[in-house]
Amino acid sequence: MKKTILSAFTGLSLLATSGLAVAAIPTRVGASPTERGNFTNYRATLSELNDSNVTGTAQLTFDGKKLSVSIHAEGLEPGMPHPAHIHGKLTGADAMCPANSADTNNDGFVSVFEGAPAYGPIKLNLTSPQTAFGTPPNTVLFAPFAGSPSVSNFPSVGSDGDFDLSQTYTFDMSKSADREAYRQLKALDKQHIVLHGDFAPESVDTPSGSSAIVYDPLLPVACGEISITGSKGKTNVQVKMHNTKTTSHSAHRQ
Length: 254
Prior knowledge:
Elements: H1 6-10, H2 13-18, E1 39-48, E2 55-63, E3 66-74, E4 84-87, H3 112-119, E5 122-125, E6 163-170, H4 176-185, E7 192-201, E8 213-231, E9 234-240
Parallel strand pairs: 1-9
Antiparallel strand pairs: 1-2, 1-8, 2-3, 3-6, 4-5, 4-7, 7-8, 8-9
């Protein structure tokens, strides 16, 4: 029987019992890309994770203290919540899309916990409306300034499986959480966009869980790595692709 573990996203009981916590990382800001104009453009292409067949593209623009993000992705589970975030390492080191070897328990899935050492914690919740920066639900998966998102504010996916988001995120520099978020996110060449949500065994994120197939809103289904290219007086950023399928399985499409 399918069921939804929406409580998993809040990270409260699940994260406390998972035993898979990511080690705390000291905060240090990486170098920002050189800006030769008033704004910086970015482009991301998302590749599937966990045999999801999800693909997509993203356009991003940093303009002053505003970050505009547009994403279109296809192949997601219809009618279910699909959290999306910008992830990155708090040290300023380059993040990565997780490889097959990240599946440390060999269950055929790279869970959100197994992928976190590669792509880092959540720095920006890609919700509409914007999630206020501040205290997160946990500091295992979230950066300490990321805020606490509502699942209902992530884009809804219709019967066609398409995911669409267009939102501008602003930074109030009078607030400490916003200032830290801005400092961390300015180095977008070191960040990733990750989409989440698919059916998987309950045990993927809950070690004591059963093999019953449930909807896991935390499961990574697409990832894109951002890198810098220069063009026409402003910095353009394009994503490097990583196609990192895990072992084939039939559980996630029911």
